[in-house]
Amino acid sequence: MFERAAGTTIATTTSATSLTTTDLATRFEAIKAQLLRDAGETAYRSWIAPVTLLGLSAGTLELAAPTRLIRDWVRTHY
Description:
globular
């Protein structure tokens, strides 16, 4: 599954932990904050900020990007 109405799936990651939606969103925002520090503001705004968290389903973290270009760039570089 690569296409979503809200965007394009970037990556899936299997996790053994059980997280609430709030915990998951908090952790995702912490990861994005670290990427802002690591990548710099310009790269972050262009490539990472548009990425959204779709959810966690059966241990798979699903992220989405608004375009295939952003999806592919993030897959390749992060």
